[in-house]
Specification:
Helix content: 10-25%
Oligomer: single chain
Number of helices: 2
Number of strands: 5
Largest sheet: 5 strands, antiparallel
Strand order of the largest sheet: 1-2-3-4-5
Structural class: alpha+beta
Length: 102
């Protein structure tokens, strides 16, 4: 992983995101999943690819039936999706989260 992924993981750990077991049913086997519940059954997920692919990371806000279904079943609905390829892409996520808190 390069420095961007390391910075993202460091920020996630500081902000009480939980690492979710990847059961390889929904996300690539090379992905690490971090999740934090932001409302009842609504989660902010970061999916970080360990291997080199087109996307380095994704941020997704999605609704699941329960936390145990993350990475096992498709979400009930996806509310937001952002591909993170560069550091500036994190700015868009930050802006979205500020607006959604209004």
């Amino acid at each position: 992983m390069d420095r961007l992924e390391n910075k993202i993981i460091e920020l996630l750990n500081k902000n009480e995101f939980q690492k979710i077991n990847n059961h390889f049913q929904i996300f690539d086997c090379e992905s690490q999943i971090y999740a934090k519940e932001i409302k009842k059954n609504i989660f902010l997920l970061f999916i970080i690819k360990v291997a080199e692919h087109v996307e380095k990371a994704k941020a997704i806000i999605a609704q699941f039936d329960s936390p145990e279904n993350i990475g096992v079943k498709d979400p009930v609905q996806i509310l937001f999706h952002l591909s993170i390829k560069e550091k500036k892409d994190l700015m868009y996520l930050d802006q979205y989260l500020k607006v959604s808190q209004l």
